[in-house]
Write a structure and sequence with these properties.
This protein is α+β, with helices and mostly antiparallel strands and 102 residues long. Helices cover 36% and strands 21% of the residues. The protein is built from 4 helices and 5 strands, in the order E-E-H-E-E-H-H-E-H. A 3-stranded antiparallel beta sheet has the order 4-3-5. It is elongated, with a radius of gyration of 18 Å. The termini are far apart.
Length: 102
């Protein structure tokens, strides 16, 4: 499928994207991610691998649109609960952490 990422046209095929990402260890996910096989990859990591461009040259939206058109599942991490929405007791408990098992 022909996709334009960072003003450059690419002919992408789902199996080629899967093959390109098969030997690559996923980086920690902090924002948008794509599910390839059973792994969760950051969108920018996949974009850098399939386009061979610097991550600053394209947006996550460009890559996610292309991957969705190829049939991959793209998602975003749920937003964290702001401290203002917590009660003081909940905020203190979050700072202390959970007790260690005995």
């Amino acid at each position: 499928m022909r996709c334009v990422i960072a003003r450059f046209p690419f002919d992408l095929i789902k199996s080629e994207v899967q093959e390109a990402m098969s030997g690559i260890k996923p980086e920690p996910v902090t924002g948008d991610f794509v599910i390839i096989g059973r792994r969760h990859y950051p969108i920018k990591q996949v974009g850098a691998v399939i386009t061979r461009q610097d991550r600053r040259d394209f947006t996550a939206d460009e890559v996610s649109r292309a991957l969705i058109r190829l049939g991959f599942t793209c998602r975003s991490l749920p937003a964290a609960v702001p401290d203002a929405a917590r009660t003081p007791l909940e905020a203190a408990s979050a700072l202390l952490g959970s007790p260690e098992p005995v």
